[in-house]
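Researcher: Going back to the complex we discussed earlier. I've cleaned up the inputs and rechecked each line, so this should be the final set. Can you rerun the prediction on the complete assembly and write out the structure?
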Amino acid sequence: MFNRRDLFLAAGAAAGAATVLTAAPASAAEAADLPRRSVDLVAPPFIHPHEQATSRGPEIVEFKLTVMEKEIVLDDDGTKIHAFAYNGWIPGPMMVVHEGDYVELTLVNPATNSFDHNIDFHASTGGLGGGELTHVNPGEQVVLRFKATRPGVFIYHCAPEGPMIPWHVVSGMNGAIMVLPRQGLTDGAGKPLRYDKAFYIGEQDFYVPRDANGAYKTYASAADSFVDTMAVMRTLTPTHVVFNGRVDALTGKNALQAKVGETVLILHSQANRDTRPHLIGGHGDYVWLLGKFNNPPMTGLETWFVPGGSATAALYTFRQPGVYAYLNHNLIEAVLLGATAHFRVGGDWNDDLMTLVRRPGPID
Amino acid sequence: MSAFRGAFAAVAAACLGLLGAAALRAAFETSPGDRVAVVTIEPGAFAYRLAGDFQRNGLATNAPSSETRIAEPFAIMTRQVSQRDYARCVVDGGCAKLKGVDATAANLPVVGVNWGDATAYAAWLSRRTGEDWRLPSDVEWAYAAGGRFHDDAIAASDGDGYAKRWLAKFDQEAARETQPKAPQPFDRFGANERGVVDLSGNVWEWTDACYERRSLDASGAPSEMLTRNCRVRIAEGGHRAYISDFIRDSRTGGCSVGAPPTNLGIRLVRHRETPLRRAWRVFVDFVARL
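Model: Rerun complete. Updated structure for the full complex:
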């Protein structure tokens, strides 16, 4: 006999069925049945192809990072350091998934390396961000899976143990992951926000020891540089602050390209030290301060803030052609230590926004 | 009348006395064993692109290039001033002491010098040799440099708003090669068609020319001088650089976008002088150093 209890049960069952269809699996066994896809990572400042809004359901997205230990050149003076870099890139590559996806990361530490490494994903939950579970010695690999439950852009970095943690991070071993809302970015009031291009700028502070004459020192190995480097680190004053791993990595002929009318998403991470990005000649139309997409973005910003240990996302539509400098607006760090990138933007000039009433000339 | 003649005679005698003393001093300071290697540049004409910022009808435009005559021969140093020679000037009290100058390096150019250092060296060398050594004008440098002179005209049409020319300049500067920073042994960059060595290598050379802003008339000829700023001087080399006169390290001062000069150094020219001209020059220098 159909009574009220049955109705409640039926309604509950129907609701339960609807919930099962949209909710993510509650157990690891169910998660393992999700569709899988593998992503080939690309070197920053570029980001692998990805959807912004997706109609797909949650997936397991496979990534692979191989740790490289190698000597790199930081500037045109030939200053060298022994770096630790995911996939050999500083910063490590940007990964993009959607909220509810699972990130399955294979971390490889080749036998040719000297040091133990791991990875701490700020986007994950538990296990020291995965750092506790992913220690790999040279010659080992590990596979970690975590659920991307929080939308936003988050850093990841190496965090072996004790003093190794800051040393590895300021040797270049950090990157970022973006967890997009499944419906894509919005302004917090329902309006979708879409970008034509996305760039990832990883800012890195380096601490290079100097000799008695002030010249930068070089070492036979990372281990040999450790004690001197730690002494410079303790001063909290970097010798280099750079974008994409070296001075002038993103300036001049390496400038980022855009056109008037294009909307760009600029992702900016700093795994260790505060910075304050500014786009000279432009603004932050929408800026997710502290980089988390459940918060409505702030609008029309001049300069924004990236606390050390985090990443930020800023959206801007170019309105004027020309050269833009995107920099850390501590201008000493930007100009003297290397924290500057260029945008080269083509298109037509808008005289209404800016014009010269009279060119420079003698005073009346 | 006679008082005037007397006063005139007294002043003339005093001047001649000073000139004589200065001339004697110059004679004793000449060191024939230290002849500076030079290339003689003969008179001629060439297409010279003016230096500075030009505008026409209120918009930035390229500097005009015009046939320019060099009327008198002059000598230009075959090589840039060496660290050893600069160190001699320092020991003599004629030049400021600078870091990184190796007094034994006879085959490395001195770098990290500002415009004041360069003119002080020229004045000292003139005193030592009794000859008229000075920084080249931009015209002299361009003429002597010949095929090593880099034309900085921008390939962009005028009147296209502010951005097209700006972007063309950005692209031109972005295409420049980065040079090694360390001073290289002489002859590393080879000689030009006149035999002048190491032009437009990794050392930019100070000239005497000041920054100018000028306008062009309807026919494209330079008309008025709008601004002349002699706190900014031209350093010539791989490109024409406008550098504040007090800057020693061009990499951290002076140019903004684009590769700034890698190093700043010195190459002098020497002009022939009549004896009277020389006496006057020596006198002026003597008084200046009192």
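Model: Worth noting: Residues 199-346 of chain A form a domain with the Immunoglobulin-like fold (CATH 2.60.40.420).
Researcher: Good, that matches what I expected from the previous run.
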